[in-house]
Predict the structure.
Amino acid sequence: MKPLIIANWKCNPITLEEAKLLFDSIAKGIKNIKRVEVVICPPFVYLVTSNKRQVTSIKLGAQDLFWEEKGAYTGEISPKQLSDLGCEYVILGHSERRKYQGETDEMINKKIKSAAKEKLKIILCIDKISQLKNDLKGASEEELKNLILAYEPLFAIGTGKPCGIEKAKKMRLLIGKNSAKNTPVLYGGSVNSQNANDYIKKADFQGLLVGGASLNPSEFIKIVKSIDHD
Ligand code: PGA
């Protein structure tokens, strides 16, 4: 598997024009990248535009979904609607959703099963092993086939204080022991172009989940390029 770099734009930018500009600047900067898979997860409202931009080197992802396929669920977006828009990936269980939307492990568990049914590649964010166990409760081997985990320590998210490599390495090992063999694990939390490669080379992560730095095209391109080598 190629290292996976996920751009999580969160609730940014504010306008469609800015979103187009950001998407195109990133696309232009990484067009010759061969050894890294880049996924952009914009807010739902920019998915259609991003998909129309037809950049084959960038895959699309969503930042959340609802577990039902369709129906009377005001404000929700279903897995089928996402795959129809060209989404291959979905971030689930992000700590900001657990905190601000009150998402519980039970809700995340339902979302995982529903995303798996639609064959979306799930990026499940955790900051402790108990979440891993609860979020994946009762999920079958088949449902977990497309699972990617992301270790996102709360203290490192959006703080500019990334997790130290030694601690990250220990967590990578622990997650490996508590998950199915060969499940990729990403690191997320204050990733920048200076520390990105260390998480992959020194702590054995299979990729990165990048928040703040993914809104700055030149910094994000530098991150991708720092990983794009043998
Ligand atoms: P950050 O966010 O890179 O801004 O710390 C990471 C994340 O929340 O996925």
The longest strand covers residues 87-92. The chain has a mean pLDDT of 95. The CA atoms of residues 77 and 128 lie 27 Å apart.
